[in-house]
């Protein structure tokens, strides 16, 4: 399937369109690597906890653009499945911190392995030079996205040392 023909200097809008198509195709491919027993919303929680170990419920709810009661119910189900641990904060006993359990870490590792296997089957169909170009482009994209996400989390006008 050819998504587009690239000009020497593709416009950002064209690259965004092709990237969105690639993301949709990834969703289809990754759908083959079941996330059971976690729902898509629960998987999102696990991924956030993996990157923000010890986050509190309110901050997690904000990250999900959800309410604390809904987020708490998500975490209840994840805790019942053994993926999440609630730990009382040492600074404030009223505050509960959320952490991935060893089972949660193992689940994400297994899911990534299955997803990467699915991706490798697609990448094996590509010429080596195109894989190299894709890798370079994705590394640059990841760097730019991480910078933007970091800046969004820091908020306007914040200073980093």
Map the helices and strands.
Layout: H1 12-31, H2 40-51, E1 55-56, H3 57-64, H4 68-80, E2 84-88, E3 96-100, H5 102-123, H6 128-154
Antiparallel strand pairs: 1-3, 2-3
Describe this structure in words.
This protein is mostly helical and 161 residues long. Helix content is 63%, strand content 7%. The chain has 6 helices and 3 strands. The chain has helices spanning 12-31, 40-51, 57-64, 68-80, 102-123, 128-154, and strands spanning 55-56, 84-88, 96-100. Strands 1-3-2 form a 3-stranded antiparallel sheet. A hairpin with a 7-residue loop joins β2 (84-88) and β3. α3 (57-64) packs across α4. The longest helix is centred in the last third of the chain and has 27 residues, at 128-154. It is globular, with a radius of gyration of 19 Å. It starts with 11 loop residues before the first helix and ends in a 7-residue tail after the last helix.
Key attributes of the depicted protein:
161 residues, mainly alpha, three-stranded antiparallel beta sheet
pLDDT below 50 for ≥5 consecutive residues: which ranges?
A: none
Report the β-strand fraction as a percent range: 5-15%
Given the structure, what is the number of helices? 6
The chain-level structural class is: mainly alpha
Largest sheet strand order? 1-3-2
Task: Give the termini separation.
Answer: 46 Å
Oligomer: single chain
User: What's the shape?
Assistant: globular
Give a quick precis of the structure.
This protein is mostly helical and 161 residues long. The chain has helices at 12-31, 40-51, 57-64, 68-80, 102-123, 128-154, and strands spanning 55-56, 84-88, 96-100. It has a three-stranded antiparallel beta sheet.
């Amino acid at each position: 399937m050819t998504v587009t023909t690239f000009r020497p200097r593709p416009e950002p809008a064209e690259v965004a369109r092709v990237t969105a198509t690639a993301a949709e195709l990834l969703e289809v491919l990754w759908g083959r690597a079941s996330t059971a027993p976690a729902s898509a919303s629960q998987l999102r929680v696990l991924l956030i906890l993996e990157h923000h170990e010890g986050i509190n419920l309110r901050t997690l709810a904000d990250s999900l653009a959800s309410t604390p009661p809904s987020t708490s119910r998500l975490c209840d189900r994840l805790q019942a499945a053994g993926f999440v641990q609630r730990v009382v904060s040492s600074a404030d006993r009223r505050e509960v911190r959320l952490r991935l359990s060893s089972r949660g870490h193992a689940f994400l590792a297994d899911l990534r392995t299955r997803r990467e296997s699915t991706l490798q089957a697609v990448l094996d169909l590509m010429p080596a030079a195109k894989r190299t170009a894709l890798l370079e482009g994705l590394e640059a994209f990841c760097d730019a996205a991480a910078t933007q996400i970091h800046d969004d989390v820091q908020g306007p006008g914040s200073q980093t040392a």
